[in-house]
Design a protein that fits this description.
Layout: H1 7-46, H2 51-56, H3 62-71, H4 78-90, H5 104-139, H6 144-158, H7 161-175, H8 200-206, H9 210-247, H10 250-257, H11 262-270, H12 275-291, H13 294-299, H14 305-314, H15 318-346
Length: 351
């Protein structure tokens, strides 16, 4: 008769497996981030923009140019430049911005919360509307409702973001006056709330400024809805695809044969198994909103990381460009890893 291992042995094995999984997770994140650092660094060196000229101007003498080049460390071998770049990034130093005259890390801490706020509201809109639409389309496959939802999804893939944003401003702001105009707040509210978190909605509530809170929502709802429409189209399409696969399974047919209500069959039996892949879809969609909001921020004059990145590109501000790209990539990695963790939590087979 085989003896079961002692509880202490079982506990040590579990701790060992947990520690190995944690170390593997940290190593994966570190290597991915290192690869991202390498890509951003070498892209910055291949782009035909001279960062020295952006600092000293095209009328500077050769001596001034060489002195600035040496001060920026561009006279060193490429491997030394990369080493210094990695050390600087790991210590939180992303360089100085030519456009603003401030540290890039400080600029990003100012501009990124605006993008985070808009993308978060956008993904909430996309999930709250997109998931039910996908489920309804799959449960009524081939019907007129299914066709309408598929057309809405197709429009979300086809429409240019800047065009939809301009049309939204022309109709809902300039014509109907239902929403606020460009920017995060009306000009007379600007600067009245201390930026504790950088998120205007939260900061205004913390300060007890309800008028500013509603004014911020008034300005936020249109750009967030435009972003949410694009994520809605993607989420609805993927939800429909996942649900169609589940509705053709034998366990769903068995549930229907047992006489269970259709609502229970769809939302409990067919929808539960697709929660895991939906987590990945929603995570990728959220990361896409954070990195792809450049056009929306430009159209709505939204002071976010996308607008900051566009201004940096126009001014040949390579420190700001590389720093912004690096932060967006790091956020993408973080969201992807969080999705993996949630995947393992929801699906015991993946543990």
């Amino acid at each position: 008769m085989a003896l079961s291992p002692a509880p202490a042995v079982v506990a040590r094995r579990r701790w060992g497996r947990g520690l190995s999984a944690l170390l593997g997770f940290v190593a994966t994140v570190f290597l991915t981030f290192l690869g991202l650092l390498a890509i951003t660094f070498f892209i910055g060196r291949v782009i035909p923009i001279d960062p020295v000229l952006a600092v000293v101007g095209d009328r500077a003498t050769k001596a001034v140019y060489e002195a600035a080049r040496a001060q920026m460390g561009l006279d060193q071998p490429l491997y030394m430049q990369f080493f210094n770049y990695v050390v600087g990034v790991l210590s939180g130093n992303l360089g100085q911005s030519v456009s603003t005259g401030r540290a890039v890390a400080e600029d990003i801490s100012r501009f990124f919360p605006a993008t985070l706020e808009m993308a978060t509201i956008g993904i909430i809109i996309g999930v709250v509307i997109g998931v039910p639409l996908g489920v309804i389309a799959a449960s009524r496959q081939g019907s007129i409702i299914d066709q309408i939802i598929r057309v809405v999804g197709l429009l979300g893939y086809s429409m240019p973001a800047f065009w939809l944003g301009l049309v939204g401003l022309a109709v809902f702001y300039a014509r109907l006056r239902w929403v606020g105009g460009p920017g995060r707040l009306d000009i007379f509210y600007d600067g009245l709330v201390d930026p504790v978190t950088g998120l205007t909605l939260i900061d205004s509530l913390l300060a007890g400024e309800i008028d500013i809170f509603w004014n911020a929502i008034n300005h936020l709802i249109l750009p967030a809805s435009v972003l949410g429409f694009f994520s809605l189209a993607y989420i609805a399409r993927m939800t429909r695809s996942f649900m169609l696969d589940q509705l053709s399974q034998e366990f769903v047919t068995t549930a229907r044969v047992k006489g269970l209500p259709e609502r229970v069959v769809i939302w409990r039996h067919a929808f539960n198994p697709i929660r895991v892949p939906l987590i990945t879809v929603i995570g990728l969609s959220y990361a896409g909103l954070l990195e792809g909001s450049v056009m929306i921020e430009t159209v709505f004059s939204w002071p976010g990381i996308g607008n900051y990145l566009t201004t940096a590109l126009l001014n040949a501000d390579m420190n700001a460009v590389l720093g912004s790209t690096l932060v967006i990539g790091a956020v993408f990695i973080f969201i992807n890893k969080v999705s993996d963790v949630l995947y393992r939590v929801l699906d015991p087979r993946a543990r």
